[in-house]
Backbone:
């Protein structure tokens, strides 16, 4: 029994841990609570043989799953969706326990992730092909959309539940089967989802979870296997590039959701209160550990002082603490390496002339907590300008002109999300179109939703998740040519 969990949370955690052990796998690894380093439980540490078994199971399950009607697949997906909603509080507690984010955010993630399942269950029914006007009287040209086959998915720890449902639900709705390797820091949320998927009635082998302490062996088998026809990865650009190279030999289809370096641009004419609220939401959600998190805040000179003062006031009393404590807004970072990296970035910026208006150090609570930090006078030559911070650090830069800020915002290999605050409609189009990003949010904070395409350009990735484009990422297009008519 875990003292901070509800009876329902404890019951689901016990089932999750029991399921995650796997009788046929001897090795295990420990999962810890980042809020206090305490031990939560052990789960199976799988390697190459278990990965191959999962691929074989997914391959065996594929023909029958692909042959079902979209309606039949949707019925099971919807059953999974309902089970997740029924267990949302317990799933959120498990998520917070292993990942650290505040309980309210965890609950938001569970529901957000579940919504993809419901949406793709429906969208799978609309996976239309085409009949192309013929080029000869005795011929007909048909375009079929068929499921790709077995999909491999590798997911991160920062959104350990929704990054799985966002991949699994379009894959299964399209008729693919899947092998998922969750992040080593957060395997429990993945196992709990698998448990509920089985309860929902997915046939054996349709969805498979491979938990592992070290990703390499599992990823090596997934990427080398000719039976895995697509890899969908969310994580760092560094690992994305490794996986892309590894997939070359079998010419696998790839979806990559990689790192970001989001600019957040505030023009003189912006609604400053709305912009500050937007900065708070996009910077501090998940303690800044999101690929779309605001990374560089550019504020035009006319409102810089006012914006910084409002942001400082909003940040001043942010409650920092364990995610399971009632008032917490900022939880711990995921592991010691994350804290060290944030500290190094802040130290480099301060050393080169930035000023810390707030914070600048690990939080007095110790452990993996970092103090909400507001840096001003940040410049492009500081490491923090070109690195994903992944921590609760707001870095403010100055600018004078539209052209200058567009150039600065685009001066990065990343291109995931950008935020723009202005009330000038002409500027919305000029700047919105000039920003080299897959997603541009204007006067809003860009919460992803199932109906809209999420993804980046440049080194932020390939493909889109969510929306009809996200479903199309799991099909092959086949041209069926008929003659002799
Ligand atoms: P982050 O920086 O967010 O931890 P990573 O890219 O390191 O991102 O991790 C995302 C996912 O990629 C996790 O599931 C992790 O286990 C996995 N991973 C890490 N290193 C490798 C690797 N060399 N090959 C394949 N997968 C990896």
Residues:
């Amino acid at each position: 029994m875990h003292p901070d969990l509800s009876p329902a949370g404890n019951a689901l955690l016990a089932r999750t841990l029991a399921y995650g052990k796997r009788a046929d796998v001897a090795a295990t690894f420990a999962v810890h609570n980042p809020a206090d380093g305490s031990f939560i439980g052990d789960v199976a540490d799988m390697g190459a043989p278990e990965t191959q078994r999962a691929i074989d199971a997914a391959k065996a399950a594929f023909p029958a799953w692909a042959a079902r009607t979209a309606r039949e697949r949707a019925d099971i997906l919807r059953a999974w969706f309902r089970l997740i909603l029924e267990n949302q509080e317990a799933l959120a507690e498990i998520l917070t326990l292993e990942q650290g984010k505040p309980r309210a955010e965890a609950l938001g993630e569970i529901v957000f992730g579940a919504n993809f399942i419901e949406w793709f269950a429906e969208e799978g029914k609309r996976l239309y092909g085409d009949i192309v006007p013929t080029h000869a009287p005795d011929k007909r040209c048909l375009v079929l959309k068929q499921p790709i086959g077995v999909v491999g998915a590798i997911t991160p720890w920062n959104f350990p539940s929704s990054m799985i449902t966002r991949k699994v639900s379009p894959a299964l709705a399209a008729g693919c089967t899947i092998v998922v390797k969750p992040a080593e820091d957060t395997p429990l949320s993945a196992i709990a989802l698998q448990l509920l998927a089985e309860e929902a009635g997915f046939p054996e082998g349709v969805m498979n979870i491979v938990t592992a302490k070290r990703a390499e062996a599992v990823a090596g088998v997934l990427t080398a296997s000719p039976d895995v026809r697509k890899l969908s990865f969310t994580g760092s650009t560094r690992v994305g590039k490794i996986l892309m190279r590894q997939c070359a030999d079998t010419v696998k289809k790839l979806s990559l959701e990689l790192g970001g370096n989001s600019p957040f641009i505030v023009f003189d004419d912006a609604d400053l209160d709305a912009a500050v609220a937007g900065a708070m939401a996009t910077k501090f959600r998940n303690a800044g550990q999101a690929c779309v998190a605001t990374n560089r805040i550019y504020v035009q000179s006319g409102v810089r002082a006012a914006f910084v003062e409002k942001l400082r006031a909003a940040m001043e009393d942010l409650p920092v603490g364990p995610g399971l404590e009632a008032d917490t807004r900022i939880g711990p970072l995921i592991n010691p390496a994350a804290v060290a990296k944030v500290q190094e970035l802040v130290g480099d910026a301060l050393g080169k002339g930035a000023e810390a208006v707030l914070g600048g150090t690990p939080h007095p609570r110790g452990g993996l907590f970092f103090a909400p930090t507001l840096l001003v006078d940040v410049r492009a030559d500081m490491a923090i300008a070109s690195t994903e911070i992944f921590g609760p650090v707001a870095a403010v830069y100055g600018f004078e002109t539209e052209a200058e800020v567009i150039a600065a915002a685009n001066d990065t290999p990343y291109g995931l999300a950008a935020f723009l605050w202005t009330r000038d409609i002409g500027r919305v189009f000029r700047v919105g179109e000039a920003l080299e990003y897959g997603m541009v949010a204007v006067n809003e904070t860009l919460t992803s939703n199932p109906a809209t395409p999420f993804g980046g350009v440049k080194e932020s990735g390939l493909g889109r998740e969510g929306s009809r484009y996200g479903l199309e990422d799991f099909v092959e297009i086949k041209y069926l040519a008929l003659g002799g008519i």
In short: The chain has a mean pLDDT of 97.
